[in-house]
Specification:
By secondary structure, this protein is an alpha/beta fold. Helix content is about 25%, strand content about 25%. It has a single domain, classed as Rossmann fold, CATH 3.40.50.1820. The protein contains 7 helices and 12 strands. The strands form 2 sheets. A 9-stranded mixed sheet has the order 2-3-5-4-6-1-8-11-12, sandwiched between helices. Strands 7-10-9 form a 3-stranded antiparallel sheet. It is globular and about 50 Å long. The relative contact order is 0.19.
Length: about 290
């Protein structure tokens, strides 16, 4: 049976789940185990494991990559740990992975000046997430992981990284957005249509394409690949806070389109004109890389 490598993606900067009403206490949010998986000179990278409370021999596994603009390490941020524990309580082995932060210390010098630094940052993070994936597959039995049911999930930089793992063309590509020879995994997108930090549509410079949720979803629809997109009209990068408010949608997607194998094509538009707009809804590259 072919392995399932599924990407559950929210294009967001960082999490603010506690403000959304998350209720898991801090003690239970601690990882059950931390394992080193890479060493780069003095930098050691670890992955944190959160295990389900049952004693089943096999579970679906979620590999979660945090957001932070390839600048900030949010692996053990309180809200990240809350999310991971909540998913573990629902029966998943959850792995919160660290990765190299390739844009830390980089100053913004216009969109054109960010092409090479961003490409390098995505490459480094993708390499690290794939190392984690290989580790999980190697020790699947010991970790009580079903190797046929791996899910990549991420926010902002973590979402970009998760999608980039999909045949190295999903987000940042020198060869166009084309799945002619490979079939992408079922994918859930959550994206604000007014996001100024991570493009909602697409940007092309010097023969390189940076593809957002709208562009990727349109390609999925054209090829009739299974996907679900939630478009938050006129909202910016604050869609990061939607993990808890959309937790039922996420759970439905995993149960039906990942584990259940249903090949739906779902396009949702969410419009809430009365929504209180957070200050960081208008973040753009100039705000983050100063």
């Amino acid at each position: 049976m072919k392995r399932i490598l599924t990407f559950l993606s929210a294009f967001c900067l960082s999490l603010s789940l506690f403000a959304q009403g998350a209720s898991i206490d801090s003690l239970r949010c601690q990882p059950d185990e931390s394992v080193a998986f890479a060493q780069y000179d003095t930098l050691a990278l670890e992955m944190d494991f959160y295990f389900p409370p049952d004693d089943a021999e096999s579970h679906p596994c979620i590999i979660y990559s945090y957001g932070g603009g390839f600048v900030t390490d949010n692996q053990r941020h309180f809200e990240t740990r809350q999310l991971c524990r909540m998913l573990a309580d629902d029966g998943f082995v959850v792995v919160a992975t660290n990765y190299r932060l390739g844009l830390r210390g980089v100053q913004f010098k216009g969109v054109g000046g960010m092409v090479k630094p961003l490409e390098k940052a995505i490459q480094l993070a993708t390499e690290d997430v794939m190392k984690v994936t290989r580790h999980i597959l190697t020790y699947a039995t010991e970790l009580t992981v079903d190797p046929e049911q791996l899910i990549l999930m991420g926010s902002s930089a973590g979402a970009i990284t998760s999608l980039q793992c999909d045949f190295e063309r999903a987000i940042f590509s020198r060869s166009g957005l084309d799945y002619e020879y490979d079939t992408p995994a079922p994918t859930l997108f959550l994206h604000g249509t007014a996001d100024q930090l991570v493009t909602y549509e697409q940007v092309k410079l010097f023969g390189i394409g940076f593809y957002g949720s709208d562009r990727v979803a349109r390609q999925f629809a054209k090829k009739h690949y299974p996907y679900m997109i939630m478009r938050f009209t006129d909202e910016g990068h604050s869609v990061a806070a939607r993990y808890f408010t959309n937790y039922e949608h996420i759970g439905w997607f995993i149960e039906n389109m990942v584990l259940g194998g249903r090949r739906y094509e779902i396009d949702m538009t969410i419009f809430n004109p009365d929504r209180e707009k957070p200050a960081w809804d208008n973040y753009d590259p100039g705000s983050l890389y100063q």
